[in-house]
């Protein structure tokens, strides 16, 4: 998320077919000014929209927290090991 400070709530219109129109300021701030995909999460008491970049950044941060700098624990290491295993078969 760019900038952690809280901003005032904004209204967005939900159309009868489910489309949501986000305010231009939000689209611009989060890199969606030309459209794009978002991940929709139902937290039980809220609906959270995240850009794909935000989801990837959160996953990478969680991975770093869980794995740290442990040798051989990166995705690149995993894929390299799989490729070696496939060649050995």
Characterization of this structure:
The protein is an alpha+beta fold. Helix content is 40%, strand content 16%. It contains 3 helices and 4 strands. The chain has helices at 24-29, 52-67, 75-88, and strands at 13-14, 20-21, 38-42, 47-51. The strands form 2 sheets. It has a two-stranded antiparallel sheet with strand order 1-2. β1 (13-14) and β2 (20-21) form a beta hairpin. It is elongated and about 55 Å long. The mean pLDDT is 86.
Features:
89 residues, alpha+beta, two-stranded antiparallel ribbon, 3 helices
Structure in a nutshell:
This protein is α+β, with helices and mostly antiparallel strands and 89 residues long.
Total beta-strand segments: 4
In percent, how much strand structure appears in the residues? 15-25%
The 3D shape can be described as elongated
Low-confidence stretches: none
Please estimate the helix content. 40-55%
What strand order characterises the main sheet? Answer: 1-2
Cα(first) to Cα(last) distance is: 44 Å
The ordered string of helix (H) and strand (E) elements is EEHEEHH
Provide the residue-averaged pLDDT: 86
- Cα gyration radius (Å): 19 Å
Give the number of helices.
3
Largest sheet: 2 strands, antiparallel
> What structural class results from the helix and strand content?
alpha+beta
């Amino acid at each position: 998320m760019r900038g952690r400070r809280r901003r005032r709530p904004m209204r967005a219109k939900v159309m009868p077919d489910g489309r949501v129109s986000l305010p231009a300021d939000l689209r611009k701030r989060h890199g969606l000014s030309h459209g794009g995909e978002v991940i929709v999460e139902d937290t039980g008491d809220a609906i959270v929209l995240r850009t794909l970049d935000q989801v990837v950044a959160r996953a990478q941060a969680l991975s770093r927290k869980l794995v740290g700098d442990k040798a051989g624990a990166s995705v690149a290491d995993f894929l390299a090991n799989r490729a070696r295993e496939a060649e050995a078969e």
